[in-house]
Write a structure and sequence with these properties.
With 213 residues, this protein is an alpha/beta fold. It is built from 4 helices and 10 strands; from the N terminus they run βββαββαββαβββα. The strands form 2 sheets. It has an 8-stranded mixed sheet with strand order 6-7-5-4-3-9-8-10, with helices on both faces. A two-stranded antiparallel ribbon has the order 1-2. It is globular, with a radius of gyration of 17 Å.
């Protein structure tokens, strides 16, 4: 998937799949208890904000899919498309409001995306469905016990493009991922919080560091 900039310049997309094993998928989201009653929805929201926001503005080349697996009912997916978002602010409760608007609605069928607000799409399906949709990307499963994501002998390049394709990252909450899909790669020996890991992924791509793929 490519977005177009001015003068027909094309940019590659950064995808992030964030898995919330306990995150509620249906009903009235408790905005005052995102860490508890909402099933650690706070973790997903911080990751979502880290993926989509710069200091000033939104990263238009980013797509994030939240996987809400805590019920009630089947798994739900919420897709956030950076180039289409409107009214997305750097405030946790405001972002939670966008999620709340979606999960109070009937869940769409698997494979169907319903736009709930500009750039926010609601759909059914599991993580495996998302990864199948992203089969043409370079898929990275972040795992602290694996090889480094970057080439440790590389020097930051000034003009060479080392990472020219669409790339997708899979991250979980505090529970282990239930998939073996993707290339396992580490951001270091210390287990990081998801939003910090996402920030490091953006840094490596922004600075065009050669990746160990």
């Amino acid at each position: 998937m490519l977005f177009e900039r001015s003068l027909n310049e094309e940019i590659n997309v950064r995808y992030f799949a964030l898995v919330g094993h306990r995150a509620m998928s249906k009903g009235k989201l408790p905005l005052n208890d995102l860490a508890g009653g909402a099933g650690r929805m706070d973790v997903l929201i911080r990751g979502l904000m880290a993926a989509l926001l710069k200091s000033h503005g939104i990263r238009e080349d980013v797509v994030v899919v939240l996987h809400l697996q805590g019920g009630p009912g089947p798994h739900r997916r919420l897709k956030f498309v950076g180039s289409e978002l409107r009214g997305f602010h750097a405030e946790e409760r405001s972002v939670a409001g966008l999620i709340a608007k979606s999960i109070k609605e009937p869940m769409p069928a698997i494979g169907q995306w319903v736009e709930r607000s500009p750039g926010v799409y609601d759909g059914g399906g599991t993580l495996e469905r998302t990864l199948k949709d992203w089969q043409d990307t370079t898929l990275i499963r972040l795992d602290a016990d694996s090889e480094r994501l970057w080439n440790e002998k590389a020097i930051l390049p000034s003009t060479s493009i080392y990472n020219p394709t669409d790339i997708a990252f899979i991250l979980s909450d505090d529970l282990p991922l239930e998939t073996e899909r993707g290339i396992p790669r580490s951001l270091g020996s210390t287990w990081l919080q998801g939003h910090l890991a996402i920030g490091l992924c953006h840094f490596l791509l922004d600075e065009n560091v050669e990746l160990n793929l």
